[in-house]
Amino acid sequence: MVDEMWSVEKGYDRANKYVDEMEIPFIRINDNAREDITFGNLAEASNFQLQEYLSISGAWLAFVELNLSAVGAKKGAYETSYETGMKVEKAKLAEQYLAKGTRKPTIDEMEGIILRENKRLNTTMKTLIEIRVAYDKLLGRKEAFKGLFNTSSRVLSARMQEKDNEPYRTRPIYGSYDSYS
Fold this sequence. Notes:
Blueprint: H1 8-20, H2 47-100, H3 107-117, H4 119-165
Helix pairs in contact: 2-3, 2-4
């Protein structure tokens, strides 16, 4: 028989403990007050501002990716728990209908019946929806920081390459450059 004492939360906690035992350092941003970050027009930003944008966006990108992986792990645990629980309940429901000799409901009908009658699966489904929303929001933030980081990096690199490709010309002592043509 299935261990009734197990829950997706307990499984998730065990997985967290397993990762924690690896003793991999956790990245923390020591910032007491969260500020919304406003970036101006990157083409008009100074090289110093671009370097600052790279530092900030790179740090926040790493932080968001770290949190995205944690939420992704939780999402995976809840998805597996929900799908497995739904399969078990569908099998039980199908057996009930077969024993009665009546028409077995469609898959969608079965899922509706199960969610109406099984509070645990209903709660798991609602929690999974919330986790998926959080995951998608974090994914959006990750892409925003990644875009800012990549764009700042490209603008700064282009400026540096431009500077490197300028011909080396000294100023003439007398006159202008045109007088030497």
